[in-house]
Amino acid sequence: MTKPKVYVTRRIAQEALDMITQDTEMEVWPEELPPPYEVLLEKVKNIDGLLSLLTDKIDANLMNAAPKLKVISNMAVGYDNINVPEATSRGIVVGYTPGVLTETTADFAFALIMAAARRVVEADAYTRKGRWKTWGPMVMLGQDIHHATLGLVGLGRIGMEVAKRARGFNMKVIYFDAQRRSTQEEKELGVEYIPELSTLLSRSDFVSLHVPLIPQTHHLMGAKEFALMKPTAILVNTSRGPVVDQKALYEALKAKQILAAAIDVTETEPISPGDPLLTLDNIIITPHIASASVVTRTRMAVMAAENLIAGLRGQVPPNCVNPEVIKA
Ligand code: DGY
Q1: What's the rounded mean pLDDT across residues 254-283?
Q2: What is the number of other CB atoms lying within 10 angstroms of the CB of residue 323?
Q3: Burial class of residue 16 (count of CB atoms within 10 Å of its CB; 0-12, 13-18, 19+)
Q4: 223, 251 in Cβ contact below 8 A?
Q5: Confidence check: pLDDT of 328 > 70
Q6: Active-site residue, from 181, 288, 297, 299
Q7: CB 49 within 8 A of CB 71
Q8: What is the pTM of this model?
Q9: What is the pLDDT of residue 58?
C-alpha cells in the first residue's frame, strides 16, 4: 500500500519527524527561513498532508494547487495564517496546538512585564557600555510590579495563566473580554471583569494582550486607545502583531504618552531593520519566542504530528479547528 505524502515546512523536533515518517512518505523543507510561497505552491501539488507553521500563508490559491490535500496541521495555537473556511469548504481538516504552550507563553508575558517595568534590557546595555560608575540613587528607576494593576485584554487559556502569576506578585488583575468568565472562575482567579476596554485601559498600570487575531481584534490598540492609558503604563503584546497599530504605538512611545512597551510580535515579521520602533529606548522587541522553550516546542511538534497522522487516517485530529469536516 502506498503511504500518504506529506510536506513539513521546516525542521521540527526529531521525535515528531520520527512519528510522521512511520506512517508517511515525508519531505521536510530544510532551510532556516520558511519556504517561499512559490516553492510551497509546487510542493503541495501531490501531497495528502501538510505540516505548516505560522509563517506559512495557507490560502485558497495554495489549496487549489493541492487537490489531494486532506489535512493541514499547524504547529501553533494561532491559525490566522490559514484560511479555515476555504479549508472546510474543500473537506480539509485543520489541526492546531492549543494547551501545551499556555504556561510557557504566560511565563514569557510575565518576563516581558518584569523586564519592561524594571528596565532590564536597558540596564544590561548601560552596564556593557561602561556607564555604571557608581550606585546612583536616581539611576535606572523603574516601575513597581507588586500591587500594580494588570489589565488583561483577553482571558482565555494564556490570559488566565498570566493572571495566576500576577497574583503571586500581589497585583490587582482586571480583564476585558468579549466573553465574560463565570463568577466562580473570576473568584478563583481573583480577577475583576471590566465591561469596557476604555475603562480597563485607563485603570491599568500594565496592559497585556491575549486575544486571537480576528477581524474584530485587528488594530484593537490604536491611537485612541493609547491616549486612554496612563502615562506610566506599559503595554505587553505576546498575541499577534496586527492587534496593535504599530505606527500609533511608535507615536505613543515617542511622545511618552505611555511609558514603555514590550512586544514579542510585530505587524510584519520579522520587523524591518528600518522600523522606527527600533530607534526607541522605551520598547523591548523579541522575535516571537513566547512559546520557545525546549520542552514546549517539542510538545507542539509532537501534537502537530499527532494531528497530522489522525487527519490522514480519516479521523478527527485530537486538536482540530474544523471537526465538522470529518463528523459531517
Ligand atoms: C502560536 O502558537 O500561535 C504562537 O504564537 C507561537 O507559539
Answers
A1: 98
A2: 13
A3: buried
A4: yes
A5: no
A6: 288
A7: yes
A8: 0.96
A9: 98
Q: How far, in Å, CA of 173 to CA of 151, rounded? A: 6
Q: Which residue has the CA at smallest separation from atom 2 of ligand 1?
A: 76
Whose grid coordinates read 495555537?
77
240 catalytic per annotation: yes
Higher pLDDT, 327 or 242: 242
**Span 181-198, pLDDT tens digits:** 999 999 999 999 999 999
What distance in Å separates the CA atoms of residue 27 and residue 213, rounded to the nearest whole number? 30
CA of residue 155 to ligand 1 center, whole Å: 16
Of 55, 96, 101, the one to substitute when testing ligand 1's pocket (max ligand atoms within 8 A of C-beta) is 101
Q: Which of 269, 145, 148, 158 is nearest to 209 (CA)?
A: 158
State the residue for C-alpha cell 487559556.
157
CB of 222 shorter than 6 A to ligand 1: no
**Exposed e or buried b per residue across 199-222, where buried means at least 16 C-beta atoms within 10 angstroms of its C-beta:** ebbebbbbbbbbbebeeebeebbb
The Å distance, Cα 74 to ligand 1 centre, comes to: 10
Q: Check pLDDT > 70 for residue 178.
A: yes
Do the beta carbons of residue 144 and residue 325 sit within 8 Å? no
